[in-house]
Design brief:
single chain; alpha+beta; 5-stranded mixed sheet; two-stranded antiparallel ribbon; binds zinc ion
Length: about 170
Amino acid sequence: MQEQQLPTLIAPFKLARQGQELRGVVSVNGLERLATVLSDDKGHINVLLQFGKDQQGSNLVRGHLSTRVNMVCQRCMKPMSVNVDTNVSLAIVASEERAMQLPEGLEALIVEEEPMALARMIEDELMLALPIVTLHENRDCEPVLKKLQEETNVIEQAEKKVNPFAVLSGLK
Ligand SMILES: [Zn+2]
């Protein structure tokens, strides 16, 4: 299927009423909040969102988001590639109050005002789906760690050499 250009703003209630589907890609560099937790803003998100109503007439959006982004490994502090793949299943409600009334296990998309930014919704879902801990597989990480340690040693040795001068300049 051809990828369509996704709108910046969406009207979720209207989309649900019309039973519309959104399918396309959003680039990570348009999602500022998400980009702050990544090591760069490269990449794009594959978006598939199906809006509609359930048998009780509640407004729903279901779908799937997938992407490959770069995050910082918490062991070696180097970038690593992370696959994020998440299903979306949200009830579209008009207020926080309505959200509280939803059956347990059903998450809400609170739309107080239409239209809303599609990016806001995609970001919210992806932020929840990101891994809490990002670490390279050991074999990818440890050589880097060893290299870092060597670099630290070089710096420490350089500092020792510099030290006598630092003392001298302090005496001036
Ligand atoms: Zn690492």
